[in-house]
Amino acid sequence: MFKTTSLAAALIATNALAAAADTPMAFDVAEDHTRFVFAPAPVHDNGMPAHGNPFVTQGYIYPAGTLAGNVAGAREDGSPVFPDKVLGTWTCDGWFVGEGGNTERGVWLVSRQIFDFGDGNTIVTQGTELADVGVENPRPITGASGDLAGQDGVVGQTLLGFSEFFAVNATFRIVVNEDHASLHILGDAPSPK
Questions:
Q1: Residue 124 sits in which domain range?
Q2: What is the residue range of the signal peptide feature (predicted)?
């Protein structure tokens, strides 16, 4: 009975997300390096943000697969490379942890991410981010609005790499309710280096 009820709830949530026509279940994000700002301290000797340094940044939401192979999504001036494909705006704020900007593996950020698909349709997640390219990391959905209001579950985030301007390229997928067990547990994530 419990499994049937849980499955029904998961299907209802999935259908509600899919019903928000402008909101895909998977998408890519290209950070706009001109919008990345971090505090003047603490920093490492090489100028990279150190543990505890706060930051804020923004970028473009694209259809899933747009940035496959770590294709650049923002130009040198910060404008989108694919303006006709932009689905919305991504905003991220948080703190560097561990070895901060020098982290090569494991958790390097604790952040909040806001995915704004327009028309009041947003998803908010909060959690850790990994410096590892190609490793999916689950982030709990902590809020949603518009057609997405009341959604829960997780968003799986996978770092695709960095642009020539050292901007993050990542891919995301929304995993609702019971389906989030398919994501690895953060405790299984690679340890920091």
A1: 23-53+89-130+137-193
A2: 1-18
